Amino acid sequence: MLNSDDSPRVDGRYVPNQVRAVLFDRDGTLCVDVPYNGDPDRVEPVATAPAALWRLRAAGVATAVVSNQSGIGRGLVTGRQVDAVNRRLDALLGGLGPILVCPHAPDAGCPCRKPAPALLLAAADRLGVHPGSCAFVGDIGSDMAAAAAAAMRGVLVPTPVTRAVEVAAAVEVAPDLLTAVDRLLGDDPATRVARVGPAARSGRS
Ligand SMILES: [Mg+2]
Ligand SMILES: [Zn+2]
Question: Does the keyword Hydrolase apply (predicted)?
């Protein structure tokens, strides 16, 4: 359920654009990209993913995953295998929230494949968070296009295979997942307090 007036107040102040949910791309963002992977044993989280997810949970920020898995539509991997891979990643990272997958081939003309925003909006809806209070973190240009189309803040975390033109076009770029999450939390007074704890609060005000 969406609520357009769910912006919080901190110490009586209105806090606009608070990040209340962070959505992630899967391959190349949360885990090392193994093209059309159907084998849970080949799931390897990126180095800073465990810390990034831990930090979000500690701050009470909801998470979800939105992933294009055209290998299903191409007949290279089954939906069952993709589910098994997702379950392994979810277990390794301590819980990712809803994992939404587009199973269609690129030429299927579906409405859900990124850069279309449909699955990002569906994930926000599942979490009960207004899209304007969500951020989307991904590793390629179509992730950033999907974020923009969903009116979400987009953060690009490039990998060595991310094209330079996509990095140049991104509104926000972070060198790794933990830095991306840190920035998303650090911009927000409410979650900053949650992250550093009450003791540090008076010293910074
Ligand atoms: Mg990716
Ligand atoms: Zn689709």
Answer: yes
Percent of the chain clearing pLDDT 70 (strictly above): 82
Catalytic residue status for 25? yes
CA 68 to ligand 2 center in whole angstroms:
7
Tell me which residue of 52, 29, 51, 32 sits closest to 42, measured CA to CA. 32
Distance 119 CA to ligand 1 centre (A): 15
Q: Is 27 a catalytic residue?
A: yes
Domain region containing 46 = 20-197
Q: Quote the pLDDT of residue 186.
A: 86
Q: Which ligand is nearest to the CA of 27?
A: 1
How many domains are there within the chain?
1
Report the Cα–Cα distance between both ends of the chain, in Å, rounded: 35
Query: Is 136 part of a structural domain of the chain?
Result: yes
CA–centroid distance, 6 to ligand 1, in Å, is 30
- Phi, psi angles (nearest 5°) of residue 84: -65, -40
Tell me how far apart the alpha carbons of residues 150 and 26 are, in angstroms, rounded to a whole number.
18
In a domain, 7, yes or no: no
Secondary structure (DSSP) of 46-78: -TTHHHHHHHHHHTT-EEEEEEE-HHHHTTSS-
Question: 83-132: per-residue pLDDT in tens?
Answer: 999 999 999 999 999 999 999 999 999 999 999 999 999 999 999 999 99
The model's pTM is 0.85
